[in-house]
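[agent] plan:
  1. take the single chain provided in the ticket
  2. run structure prediction with default settings
  3. attach structure tokens to the ticket
  4. add a short note for the reviewer (M.T.)
[agent] executing step 1
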Amino acid sequence: MLKKPASFVFASWSVHFAQDTAGSPSRRRPQTWRSLCFAPRTSLRPRWTAFLTILLVHLVLPVTQVPVCSAATVDVYYAPEDEPIDRVAGLYAHATKYIYVAVYGLTAPSVVKALVEAKRRGVDVRVITDRERLTDPKQHSAVNTLRLAGVPIKINRHDALMHMKQAVIDDVVNTSGSANHTTSGNRYNDERLDVITDAKLTTKAREKFLAMWNDRTRFAAWPE
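[agent] step 2 finished; step 3 output follows
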């Protein structure tokens, strides 16, 4: 029994399979979705193979071809080689409207200096940090320096950690990653910092910060 190649076209995709001709002249006939699903039993296997191939193509290709946010740019820095926290301090130095920081560890002198100077320039500087981290003398001293400079500080009231490492600057840039604002996070640890330049993503980060800032159940001013 000879088998000749036959083809069908579905959604601009051609799928070839072997069709039992039993001596009949070969015909090329477009197959429909209905004919694929409700074909006679003798031809179910090749037709279902074609159907599954088409389904996979239509499910997988759109995911790989459509970018999530094509306008965004992301600069990636690693510690210790790139000293990422010094780059964050540089971003703070150029802020003109606001700096909203939610960070677990905050002890780096370069960051404290940049935030104090931004506050003196009239920038709206706010900081959220973790309550338990303030038992560390270095963090307590750094955060108290910011408070004395007029920077409002809030801490978590809930029992879990405030473990974010996020900064939002001027509706233009936001940062994220693993690196705390510490000397260890800058020069010694294996860390990553993402600097994301995109208005939409930065707005989302700002809204998250402000939601935390205004949540009186989960966060409170320091010192209370």
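[agent] step 4 note for reviewer: The chain is about 35% helix and 25% strand.
[agent] ticket updated
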